[in-house]
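Email to the structure team, subject: Glycine/D-amino acid oxidase-like deaminating enzyme model.

Hi all, the expression group asked for a predicted structure before they design truncation constructs. Nothing fancy, just the tokens so they can compare against earlier work. One-line instruction: predict Glycine/D-amino acid oxidase-like deaminating enzyme, return tokens.
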Amino acid sequence: MDLVVVGGGIVGAAITYRFARSGLRVTCLDHGLARATDSAFGWINFGWQEPEAARWLQMSAVDEFHRLDDELNGALGIDWSGALTFPGPDGIEQLIDDLVKQGCPVEAVGAAQIARLEPDLVNVPDVAMFARGDGAVSAESLRESLLAAARDAGAQVWEATVDKVAQDTDGTVAVTSDLGTVRARNVVLANGSDIVRLAQQAGESIRVDSSPAIRYQFAAPKCLSRRILSGPDYEIRPSAPGVYLGAEDFIAHDGPEGPAGRVGGSINAIARAFGLDGPLRVTDIRVGFRPMPQRGQPYVGPLVSSPRILVACVHPGVTLAPAVARRVLDHVTGVRELHAIG
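Reply from the structure team: attached below.
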């Protein structure tokens, strides 16, 4: 076996697909429980909200998504309509100028252009940031499509809970799960915050926070946004005709109503922004726990103590997954080494 991938979320699925597509023997072991991927908003972007330490992956992320979609003949269902962001009136133009200098493909748009892009928006800001290259995708469908394509290319995907990972003296790695033990030349830990436990077995201390986020779905009586809209009080995108997705950070001290109360505030702001008379009907609320590398940049690379065991823990996972998969493949096949972690 060339590779065992622990974790079948979006990062693990992308790695499994990339290795199988390259003709290597790969097995993915996934516990089959709730994943952060299945509650993700699905915004593919150039990472202007992320720390600069992630830019080495972020700036290739959108190109890797286009390459991936071309390989699968457009089957991923990505909407490349771009994103409009207006976090507030203070500092938006300076933010845009700074991002352009860093190489992010964004531009300032005024009220007239915003109204043309979003004709149903009633409360139009004076200026917004337009990232015309951003995309949106169903993260859950993307994960399933990648695993299906990986299987078609020869990968094995099993539902299993991994108990132990250890590099042996012969250089191979033993992965023990409730299905037994499998050995491979390399292992990638892509199982979110549970990476911490398995890395400790190899003698490495990795710190990963678990950050909750809300994704909700609602029905609207008329057309609202044509693309991703990220304002000071809401973040939404179209999902299907008459159906939209929204995203919010979940804060533990939000009060007794928790996620429902936070979504209610966003729903009211959306209704005001689009001039709706009645309340919007929320049809689904999910809370996903995103793995967040605590050191402020992605964990992508081999462990110092066990170089055949690699870690792939990033945020945002949906955006970076194809780029991470490419770099992991390059490392394992000797094209370009990743920095060791530990």
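The CA atoms of residues 199 and 205 lie 7 Å apart. The first helix runs from residue 10 to 21. Ping us if the truncation boundaries need rechecking.
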